[in-house]
Structure formats: C-alpha cells, structure tokens
Amino acid sequence: MPFASRQEAPTFEFQQPTPGEQLIHFQHLQKSFGPKRVYDDLELDVRAGETLVVLGGSGTGKSVLLKCLIGLQRPDAGRILFQGRDVTGFSEGQFIPVRRHVAMVFQGAALFDSLSVGENVAYPLREHYPDMPLSEVRDRVAEKLELVNLPGTERLMPADLSGGMKKRVGLARAIATNPEVILWDEPTTGLDPVTTQSINAMINSMKTKLGSTSIVVTHDLVSAFAVGDRMAMLANRRIVQVGTPGEFRRSKVPEVRAFLDARRVELEPEAAS
C-alpha cells in the first residue's frame, strides 16, 4: 500500500503506553534501492517496554528499518504505525516531535568531531528545546553522562575517546531528550569483548533506569541473547521468525538455523578452547 500524502499526515502526540502493548508496527513494508529489493511485505511489531533484537546478515536491511522509522529513509510502500498513527507520510517538520520520543544510537557513534563531549550531548536539547535555560542544559548533560558512567567528561573532545567511550557519549546524546524509544544500530560492532559486555549492560540498564523500549539491530549473537526479550530474524527480504531467545535456540526455521549454526562459536566460546 503506497504511503499517504505528506500533507495529510496528522500531528504526532505521544501517549504513555501500557507495558506490553503494541507500540510500533511495520506493516506490509516494501523497499528497494535501484534494482536491489530490501523488503517484500515485511511485517513486525514492537511492544512497549521490551528490547527487540533484529538479527540478520550484512546487507539484509536491518539498519534501513530503523532509518525508515524516524524518517531518514522512506519505504516504497506499506505503513509504519507508531501508537496507531501512520508516520510514513510525515514531512521532515512533522518528524521533529517523533524524534523527541525516538532516538537513534548510530553504529559509529556519529559524534561531531569539532564539538566537545558536553556540546555533543547538548546538541539535541538545543535542537528540540531552544528555549531551555543554559543551566538546565548543563544539568541534563551532566545527568546523562553520569548515567552512562562518563561523569565529568564534558570538556573532552571525541578524538580523546576510545571506541567504547564514543558509544557511551552517543548514547548520552541519544537519551538527552528522555526518549521513550531507543534505536541501536550495530552497537557492539568493532568493539573488544570487555567493551561489548559493558555496552550490553548499558542497553539492559536503559530499560531498568529509563523504562525505555529498545530496538537493537545486530549480527552479534552473544549480544543478541544478552539483551533481547524477543528476537526477529530478517532474511530473504522479510521477517522469517519472531520469538523469545529460547524459541530461537530451538528454531527449525531454515534461515534462523543456518544463521545460528554459522555463528555457533559465538554462542559456545568454550567449544573453541
């Protein structure tokens, strides 16, 4: 179904959801880049308060799903319902209130190299709340850096940070506006095992400390099983299975089984010793 005219899109107003209810629904999504088809009739729902992990190989469109949700890319057909409202037809201006409630932690942290850590974290506050007093901005920045275990780092520059620290600053910036939904784009790619564990713990802590809903896209099975309440497998341009981590371990779905078997050493590191 082609998405509606942007002029017809309603103003978005977030309503506090009941934990466990459907919050986001990707419905009959289709997407292509030139001759390459990414989705054919993709269906997926996200429940309030959960961490949903989207698994899949490279090039399957995991990150595209997140970008479509916040308007950085557009589906060719289908709908994305956020609390029952179709956001696929929203203009750039109409996505602004959506992005106050849905924040994305990019794969490479995507920090502004010319801005300090404090200025990076303050950036979305200045964008979304230009009238916020400077003292409140400073307090919010300090609060979020404390939350990601980087207190007192406001004056550091991105060049001074390790890969793991950059991820943490990226998270602090993402949660500066107190979003209800956090999108994680390959959060552990390129990190060492110790840093990966700390990022996994941070994802879990966002749920307990902030009560946030998370969508995590990854091909890292160790992280997937460490953080996921439910998991979805993206393969052959569609979601082939959704279920709990236990259901995935026992899955007979060919695409899921092949994915898990190819990464068995990740799940059973003792087998490699």
UniProtKB/TrEMBL annotation:
<dbReference type="InterPro" id="IPR017871">
    <property type="entry name" value="ABC_transporter-like_CS"/>
</dbReference>
<dbReference type="InterPro" id="IPR027417">
    <property type="entry name" value="P-loop_NTPase"/>
</dbReference>
<dbReference type="InterPro" id="IPR003593">
    <property type="entry name" value="AAA+_ATPase"/>
</dbReference>
<protein>
    <submittedName>
        <fullName>ABC transporter</fullName>
    </submittedName>
</protein>
<keyword id="KW-0067">ATP-binding</keyword>
<keyword id="KW-0813">Transport</keyword>
<dbReference type="GO" id="GO:0016887">
    <property type="term" value="F:ATP hydrolysis activity"/>
</dbReference>
<keyword id="KW-0547">Nucleotide-binding</keyword>
<feature type="domain" description="ABC transporter">
    <location>
        <begin position="24"/>
        <end position="261"/>
    </location>
</feature>
<dbReference type="Pfam" id="PF00005">
    <property type="entry name" value="ABC_tran"/>
</dbReference>
<dbReference type="InterPro" id="IPR003439">
    <property type="entry name" value="ABC_transporter-like_ATP-bd"/>
</dbReference>
<dbReference type="GO" id="GO:0005524">
    <property type="term" value="F:ATP binding"/>
</dbReference>
